[in-house]
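re: that complex we talked abt at group meeting.

here r the seqs, copy pasted straight from the sheet so there may be weird spacing, ignore it
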Amino acid sequence: MTDSTPRRRVRAGRPALSREHIVEAALSVLRAEGLSKVTMRRVAQELDTGQASLYAHVANTAALHAAILDELTAGVESERSGTWDNRLESLLFAYSRVLFTYPGLARSALVLRPMGQHTLRLIDRVLELLLEGGIAPDRAAWGVDLLLQHVTATAAEHAPPAPGERADREGAGTADASLAAAIREADPERTPRVAAMACELLSGPHEVRESWAIRALLHGIAGTPVRGAEAAPF
Amino acid sequence: MTDSTPRRRVRAGRPALSREHIVEAALSVLRAEGLSKVTMRRVAQELDTGQASLYAHVANTAALHAAILDELTAGVESERSGTWDNRLESLLFAYSRVLFTYPGLARSALVLRPMGQHTLRLIDRVLELLLEGGIAPDRAAWGVDLLLQHVTATAAEHAPPAPGERADREGAGTADASLAAAIREADPERTPRVAAMACELLSGPHEVRESWAIRALLHGIAGTPVRGAEAAPF
DNA sequence: ACCTGAACACCGTTCAAGT
DNA sequence: ACCTGAACACCGTTCAAGT
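got the structure back, here u go
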């Protein structure tokens, strides 16, 4: 907004570097080649400059990834009709879809804790829906974290390797499969319950489990007092 | 396992390399220098060999990290007395303590999904306690995931930078602080609820929030039917 | 079958020097 | 103030050659 006169000197058509341009370039690299290629070097190359130039606008690689995720969060919206809890679920699913599209980003998100404007909007919207559902403000405030954490962690866990993200012979994609194998082959002596309940542990398509999880979270958030040390009624 | 030997005393007479020796060496590097130093090169150096040698016993770096975490999980146990839910909470806290000690490991755990014998034991124990609490088996089976996911994600989010894990001027440690700042400075126009509830959003010491979260999860798991598509009663 | 040195193909970040 | 090339200090993984 400050520079209305782009001084394109070296090479025609090359605008001055800016945080905005950098994030834009990073996004295009992300879409084309996956998060593993969103490196300072690769993004700088995309902008026809040296990697060192980016550090004037972005603190480090983690900050760049956080900025990307916040940008992608801009498009996350809930359905406009339906009950509050259905709209909330659709909002979380929309966010989940972004994270599943770029699993590497989901994996970083828990650490990055991106707090850009779009992420704040998302938090605000979740809060709004929880309050609309009549959930006590103090429980709603603590519940937001729980809901977004769950969605993010789930994407990090279950999302397939994705575009250019090392789909090796045994990448992150087989994590689910090897987990299933480990549970199915559980020793009935050492881990009797896992062995006995292998079926239940591995049952259900992802969507159904996810829907259950969100309902369980809402149920727990709504029904668990913040102050009282007394046990919740089971 | 004996540790706290500053110099490589491991493989004194250079016995054959084995997966066990490698994990042991990796653990000692972890304890001394943090996860970021648990690299194929550094561990190989610890064993006085070339990095390529490790690949005969460990698939890749991720597998090595998973093996380490499973090993650390061996010591995780619940208190022996108290109500089932208090014992469960103590079990989760014990696991949490391991993850908080090596935050980098927590950060990887969601992706790694380590499924060694000790992790299976932990799952078995959680299942046992849920069933003891009278929670329906199908809900308990799906609930285990939710509980362990939460603990892991929380450690990944909130754990401080730790030993040798890049405690830079703006490492992962300030994530919490910058998040707090972002919420406190939230624009009342764009994000009115975040601005209005900043206090509630940021309130409470970690332990209290964590205890609330686990109670909320248990409450939700116990009270949310797996099959029924009907909304849970709020 | 296991072990090894060396190489390949990358990283993030810093810094002195330019403009 | 911004930009740059070059360098520093690392990575994971592969591979041909050894034993």
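couple things i noticed - Chain A has eleven helices and no strands. The longest helix of chain A spans residues 137-158.
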